[in-house]
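Lab meeting prep.
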Amino acid sequence: MKFSFFNKTKKYIKLKLSYPDYKEVFKKIKNNSEKRIILIGTPIHGNLGDHLIASESINLLKDWGYNDFIEVPEFLYELFPYKIKAKKNDVIVIAGGGWMGDLYEDQMVIEDVIQRLCDNKIIILPQTVYFSGKGRFSSSDKFKSILDNNKNVYLCLRERRSYNYCLNKLNIPQDRCFLLPDMALLRMDKIKEHNKDNKKIIFSIRNDIEKSEEYEWLEKLKKELELQGYCCIDSSSVIDEKYIRIDKREQYIENKINEFADVQLVITDRLHSMIFSIIGGTKCIAFDNTTKKVSGVYDEWLKNESGLKICVGNEIINTEQIHEFLKLENPKSLNYKQNFDVINTIIKED
């Protein structure tokens, strides 16, 4: 992995501020525990969806009894990869999310881990895979070549398009390729009771590389709703904080859940804004993004959930449809923990 001096400096400052005790990771790496889990790639940036994924990944490992695990945030690995040395029986777990492919530099972390820690079992938690063919961080052919040279990698995908891509394009054998829920869905076993009738609506719309199209009609919809007495709020599961301290992660997550729980409806094209809405017990209307992860996760895991609608293609929502949608039942709790038993089995295998 090669980063400019300026990029490295920014990452180091954010790492130091978000994880002041990061050097403790190096001490843990050196200890002589029999078998450890090394969780690589957790966030310190402002994307609370990624923090929710990290939180639920850690909770699941603890539920399985793996208390001797080492969390290695993404920036820590990028700055000090040579200090992350695994012992023979260690299991490497790479955090899930939507950063596998050629859109984000995070892909370089995945590829570096697979190549450097090739003697260890490596489990990549549920990801979306998207190669645009125009990205500058990797390519499908390069990634396939790296995977071809390591038979210790177990790849989890959170929607069927990515799963089929890995089977058919990357040639991952079925016994090392799994279709599993987004880790954040594990929080759905604790959905909040929702009885808000306050005419508040959150609009959580992307403005980045994953934005699918310009939703100019949404501005018109906002104005019509405001004329009908609704309070339209712009918010997101990605916040403006430059970094988030790891020891404050749960506080930020809970604050966002409470924010989304305090409205009648969320309208979004963000996967984790949709999930925060569901966890908050709030109805949600969602649109797809460029990588199709919103519709993919919905189709595979959430299509029977109440109080949730996915708009397909160029479908446009009007105020009358919103009024009818608000009459539906609120989202209900679901438990996805058993879906991950296969991962626990892989970890336990010698």
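Slide two material, second protein:
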Amino acid sequence: MTISHPTQAQVLHNYIGGHWTPSEASETQEIHNPATDEVLALVPLGTRKDIDQAVEAAAAAFPDWRATPPQERARYFFKLRQLLDENREELARLITTEMGKTLDDARGEIQRGIENVETACGIPSLMMGYSLEDGAAQGIDEEVIYQPLGVFAGITPFNFPFMISFWFWPYAVACGNTFILKPSEQDPMVQKRVFELIEQVGFPAGVINMVNGGKEAVNALLEHPRIKGISFVGSTRTAQYVYAQAAAHGKRVQASGGAKNAIVVMPDADLDMYLGTIMNSCFGAAGQRCLANSLILTVGGAHEAVRARVVEAASRLKIGMDWQKVQNLVLSSRLPRATASLPPLRGD
């Protein structure tokens, strides 16, 4: 729901140039706890002016950050890794509260994000170039040096509101670039907490920035002439749009879309061993991830036994807010599509 009238809910701020900055947006969107429908906060639907401010800050920070030796840049990530580890339980509970996956699932997401920070700590070795005598031809030596380019941006999805941002910005920033993150407007609160920790680390102002928003903010990132590249994860349709628009504006692009997955169960499959894997694939992260299984293909005599076991296991899933077995849809707008599939399932 998009609203523009006053409310008691907290309005999230952007993080630009080392400061928490109110958005220029006139519209906000409610962030709901999907288990209780409680309004947790309001996220501003950021404008092109917000993006312009972030790009200006990132571009201004780039020369000094680029000139910082890689080993010095890496030290910031050692500090960040420690803070993320110390606050991992709080971060996981934020994910469960605003996104709806189980707490154990959220804890796993935090761990994967931290692992990317750990990898970025090794950037002095990872970004080493090489040289080779006569590497190009006889009498022509070859030398390769990896150099940062400038301002990059990331656009991340709702289903992994913590982890996926860490696929992108730690590597870009550790390599000497500056960065702007646009988290999903559906569940941006965990990134707010992450940027509070980033602020504690003490990265130079403008090196890493965050702007909240929806499509207008995305388009501004894709079209801005001073942004060198875009990283995106989301639906296939949106990935195609991001790739086309960013490429048309001369940017490097990596755009990852969704997937359609199937599980094939053979007649000799050990269901006691694999039932947990099937259920996790179908329902893990509340069924809202690109690797979620949407089709079980049974072969021969496996059909009846597999159907009975899956139905029985699914009947034990709990919907609600109990921190341990919670599974919720992050958006009420997805409910019609989900419930539309229930009558034929009951009929089977």
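Talking points for slide two:
The chain is about 45% helix and 20% strand.
The CA atoms of residues 49 and 69 lie 32 Å apart.
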